[in-house]
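Protocol step 4 of 6: structure prediction from sequence.
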Amino acid sequence: MQNLINIAGKQVPLVAPTLSNEQIQKVKESKKFEKFLTTFSKEVDVEQVNILSVYWFGNNVGFINLDVETYSNGKRLPGYVFLRGDAVAILLIVNGMLLLTKQFRVPVGQFTIEAPAGMVDESSNFAGVAAKELKEECGIEIHQDEMKYLQDVFISPGGSDEVIHLFCVEKQIPQVKLEELLSKIHGAEGEGEQIHLQVKEFNWKNVLATKDIKLISAAAAYWAKL
């Protein structure tokens, strides 16, 4: 039985030779796949969507690798897609200073300094996920109404669907509490995270020195709104 999906205004075959029917159904029902299909422009022509592989989080859909046979003006476009889904990142200003995370990132083979961030779950509650990440990565509890939305940014649209939803939190906490947070190792239990915190002056030199596009984009959006 052929699997058909609606994309770019028409029904096209969904081909996944390495997946079972049950796995294909889980992919089709995942939020990241649904969003990919419904937001795809009708200005191009799609002939077929191929699922190359799926990385599973247990029994749940994690990451999806696709080859989307897409044409414009009769010519095929590069169609590889790493379907990662949405994420959030937070510009965290504590006592007037930047609070940043430091952790080892295996894909780049080094420690990185970043804004707190995390993947959005199937609920798509962006502010809720941002609050959860601040608790896990920084040990700071906030209410959703303390968060200021900044903007959304594409991270690598040439290969990935990922959109980062940027927020800002400005908070005052006792210095003793801040020093306690700086002395601890943070991270979600069971996810293998080992996160240390750093405090930096909030200026362009320190922001750019991190090479973190999430932080750079959030800082630019923050200053643009002043």
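Step 5 (inspection) to follow. The two ends are 56 Å apart (CA to CA).
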